[in-house]
Amino acid sequence: MKVAIVTGAGQGIGAACARELARSGFTCALMSPSTRSEVLAGELDGIGLSGSATSRADLERLVKTVMDRWGRIDAVVNNAGNLGRTQPGPTLRTGNAYDPTLEGQLREIEEEEWHASLDFYFLNVVRMLRLVTPIMQAQGGGAIVNISSLAALEPRLTYPLSSPIRTATLAFTRVYADRYARDGIRINSVLPGFMENREFPPGVMEAIPMARRGRMIELASTVRFLLSDEAGYITGQSIVVDGGINRRI
Description:
By secondary structure, the protein is α/β, with parallel strands linked by helices. The chain is built from ten helices and seven strands. Helix 1 (12-23) packs across helix 10 (216-226) and helix 3 runs parallel beside helix 6 (123-139).
């Protein structure tokens, strides 16, 4: 038996990953702020809990529940979704190029919002890794995938809060990979582009070389591969699943 934990699994990317992992033979433990993960876990013959990855207590409860029932954790998918704005504030217009009218709006983001984004996009990963790393070390290894965003590889003013902090998460992933590879623990990040679970303006589609949104199965299959033994020599990487929109060389 191989056991996987998926956070943010109530819908969207997290739910798609959970279904694909269950289909490929993983027994899944799911968590999300709503009860949707509990419903999905029932369909997949797994465990579902309501809780938040921003809560250390909720993550501790999830990990303890998994260990009490199955005694091992082979894979983790750290998925947080999108936080959005936590306070009233200016709306940044869509666009990737420099726009001088946005400079003042960027400065108006309060420290409380920066801290909320740090908690949501970065510390959620740190909290989980602090809990599962000793378990994976003791059992001889494991694999982790962090769900990030295309904006983490090329930070964009369109995503002024999430993109710089997601970039920090990529850096932490690299450092973690360096430290724990010799313990048989692999960690990678998957960076989705514009996926089918959301609608986007026509101009966005025109910017994607493949001229379409990504399918959930394409993303979930990438995550499943990175957690599998077939990806046993891949760690510390940022895998972009975005139809070619990122231009970085």
